[in-house]
Amino acid sequence: MPAKKGVLELHEMKRAGEKITWLTAYDYPTATFEAQAGIDMILVGDSLGMCVYGYPGTVPVTMDQCIVHCEAVRRAAPDVFVVGDMPFMSYQTSDEEAVRNAGRFLKEAGVDAIKLEGGVRVISRIKAILDAGIVVCGHIGLTPQSSGQLGGHKAQGRTLESAQAVVEDARAIYNAGAQLLLLEAVPPEVAAFIRDELPIPVLGIGAGAEVDGQLLIVSDVLGTFQAFTPKFVKKYADLAGVATAALTEYVADVRAGRFPEEQHCYHMLEGEHERFLAYTGEDG
Ligand code: KIV
Description:
alpha/beta; TIM Barrel; 2 domains; elongated; binds 3-methyl-2-oxobutanoic acid
């Protein structure tokens, strides 16, 4: 198992041109697999709303849900850099509320950093959280919590004006002092410019190859989320197919009396069956 990376090691990886690997995880087993695979960072994303709870989006996700999932991931991956994702309405109302909720991620779940969506419009929140001594990852481009304002889950930065807005958001986040930046669904041309300009790790999900590292949603990677698959996803396994086939076989086995078999049974201890038959009156 490689040594745990902190924010300084992640910055060093950028300087050395080493790609940073990042995946979401929401539960103990998945985070265990990711740690065994040697992942550098785990995001306990509010995408858990769709991937775990079956909500139509991320908006209904609560702080308490995020904390429970972060705790499970932390237990599974004590040596991985874990980022807690601030859910909708955990930071939008005031700087104080943002700091209080960011603090919960560290105090209750032991994460290494928090992530929040938005650029220029959330700069005072980012500064307030940083002032509390918490490592911050900005998240701009397609920001799912405000996708209604973006006209849906649409890539950002595809026109000059939109690209300028993304660049301004990136600069504002860096100038506020954030240590990490995530670009979601942004053209590679724009992402590469930001990666070159900023000295902090610029990670991408759907932002092309010219960034310092890649994030994907583990449910897409393993094929457990079936509702839709974004263009930027590479599916590495079909666990939904594997799981459904296995469970279909179980249902058929039980119905046909093929399960359980002798090997799956706990028999009574020696001599105890005779005593039991005497007790039930079936001994003859
Ligand atoms: O919640 C999440 O998984 C995210 C990614 C979509 C970036 O924020």
